[in-house]
Specification:
Elements (H helix, E strand, L loop, with lengths): L1 H12 L26 H5 L73 H11 L19 H18 L21 E9 L2 E5 L18 H14 L5 H5 L1 E8 L4 E7 L4 H17 L3 E8 L19 E5 L4 E5 L2 E5 L12 H12 L6 E5 L5 H6 L5 E6 L3 H13 L5 E5 L4 H7 L7 E5 L10 H7 L4 E6 L5 H10 L2 E9 L9 E8 L1
Parallel strand pairs: 4-5, 9-10, 9-12, 10-11, 12-13
Antiparallel strand pairs: 1-2, 1-3, 3-4, 5-6, 7-8, 13-15, 14-15
Helix pairs in contact: 3-4
């Protein structure tokens, strides 16, 4: 009975077995010549039957077919290879190719002659100068070791070399010297370093002896005394936490009074409390400090305030005193916020504004365009001599200060200040049509004018154009643009706005050819 059940079990589970005889196992080494069913993909593929529509046929019955025989057709030699596994490298990928290869063609590289900047010409003249003084271009006052007459002579020779080597048309006139050759800077800064438990106020980012104050001969005595007071306060235990959070201590103002700006990178309750205590101590100990501000700069930039201004405004908080800094030029007192640019050499400003009026030949019929006007220093000091003034500068606190200064000093006069970046489109859209008595003044940043600005101004055909360069290296490129659009230099007047440094402010008067 048990044997019968066993045979029945085999018959029910092994339908391939017929008559109780088990066929021999297939030998894989021998060729299997039995016919195999055609693969559904092979039967209906558009590749094999391009003219027929692909329809999936019914699956063939598995009866009498081995599982190993239901695979697709095997490819013969020379047909499509099977895809290699993902881990297998491509043929020859990691094998060295010993076949000889032709040498790569050598591209001819055009070697351009090195173009020297104006400061490099100053260094070249210094090396050949009889009075041997070390010239360090990275120092805060690299020319301070020379006497001021020698310094002006060095700058004059360097400017003439720069003009000749760059083939610039015209001849520079004699440099107008500064009334103050040293101690003239009304803006200064010190980086705050906390090292080995001591606070240092440095001019450069390089390390110095802990607990020291680096001095500069270009700054007035007022600044030095305030920096010493700040160093003494920050070195005390009470203000060490604040010293660790400071980027810079900045002083701006005039030769008799100034404002202090504390540039911090971290703000919390402790820092705010300590900075208020420090401001109160500064106000009590030195009455020449008329205001104090806290400026938040989490980027720790190298600029006086911050390299990139936030779109929503400047994070400036007044701690005490007036909100603006004042400066008096040609009898006109102008106010401007402590976060915007202003000329650093106050002693040179009367010569600066007087030269502008002389070169532009302002009359009561003249319309003056003051581009890159800032808070209105040039436009408002020229307003008594011109018929009308139109200023333009980027939207921000500077242009709003110019509008308020114009309202206060010249109510009812034809003075207009436009808040817009100086571009070709803004000049075409926002300026009135040109007239025959129009003159243009440009005082752009060190990087120069934007693309298309010179062409747009030249299309207005003004009588005279005065282009002021604070970056001497931009002069060749900008003058080429002016020449291309029909204007050539008539006078080249350099002014030494930055004694002790290899920099000049250059005024170039342009007129039509």
């Amino acid at each position: 009975m048990a044997e019968t059940r066993k045979i029945k079990h085999r018959k029910n589970n092994k339908p391939w077995q017929k008559d109780g005889v088990k066929p021999p196992a297939a030998n894989r080494n021998e060729t299997d010549n039995r016919p195999r069913p055609q693969s559904p993909r092979e039967k209906t593929s558009a590749y094999n039957n391009p003219g027929e529509a692909s329809r999936r046929p019914a699956a063939p019955s598995d009866a009498g077919v081995r599982k190993s025989d239901s695979r697709g057709p095997r490819y013969e030699s020379g047909s499509r290879p099977r895809p290699r596994p993902p881990h297998a490298p491509a043929p020859g990928r990691y094998e060295s190719d010993s076949r000889p290869r032709p040498p790569a063609p050598v591209k001819a590289v055009e070697v351009k002659p090195a173009v020297m900047g104006y400061a490099e010409y100053v260094g070249e003249v210094c090396r050949d100068f009889p009075n041997k003084v070390l010239f360090d271009i990275h120092a805060a006052d690299p020319l301070a070791g020379f006497t001021y007459p020698d310094e002006c002579l060095i700058k004059q020779k360097a400017l003439e070399l720069f003009w000749k080597k760059n083939d610039i048309p015209g001849i520079p006139e004699k440099i107008i010297p500064s009334p103050l050759s040293r101690g003239y800077r009304t803006n200064s800064k010190r980086r705050v370093l906390f090292y080995k438990g001591k606070v240092s106020l440095t001019l450069e980012q390089s390390r110095c002896e802990p607990g020291t104050l680096q001095q500069s001969s270009l700054e007035p005595v007022l600044h030095l005394s305030i920096y010493q007071l700040l160093l003494d306060l920050l070195s005390s235990v009470n203000y060490q936490m604040l010293a660790r959070s400071l980027n810079y201590c900045i002083i701006r103002g005039s030769y008799t009074s100034c404002s202090v700006i504390l540039n911090v990178h971290t703000v919390d309750n402790i820092v705010v409390r300590k900075i208020k205590q420090l401001a109160a101590t500064l106000k009590k100990d030195d009455p020449r400090i008329i205001s104090c501000f806290m400026y938040v700069d989490p980027t720790k930039s190298d600029y006086y305030l911050e390299s990139k201004r936030p779109e929503k405004g400047v994070a400036l908080k007044k701690l005490f005193g007036p909100e603006n800094i004042d400066i008096t030029v040609d009898g006109i007192r102008l106010l401007y916020p402590p976060t915007i640019f202003s000329q650093v050499n106050e002693s040179m400003l009367p010569n600066f504004t007087g030269a502008i009026r002389e070169l532009l030949k302002l009359t009561a019929e003249t319309r003056m365009l003051d581009l890159y006007c800032g808070y209105g220093l040039i436009g408002l000091t020229s307003a008594p001599y011109a018929g009308s003034v139109i200023g333009m500068d980027i939207e921000g606190p500077a242009i709003h200060a110019a509008i308020e200064n114009a309202k206060y000093h010249f109510p009812g006069r034809p003075l207009k200040f436009i808040a817009s970046p100086v571009t070709a489109d803004s000049l075409s859209d926002k300026l009135p049509p040109p007239n025959t008595k129009e003159v243009v003044l440009l005082d752009p940043p060190r990087s120069g004018t934007a693309h298309g600005v010179i062409e747009t101004i030249a299309e207005r055909q003004p009588l005279r154009i005065l282009h002021i360069f604070c970056g001497t290296d931009e002069i060749p490129r900008e003058l080429q643009e002016w020449n291309k659009h029909g204007y050539i230099p008539k006078r080249i007047l350099p002014l030494d706005m930055f004694p002790g440094s290899p920099n000049l402010e250059t005024m170039i008067l342009l007129e039509p050819k």
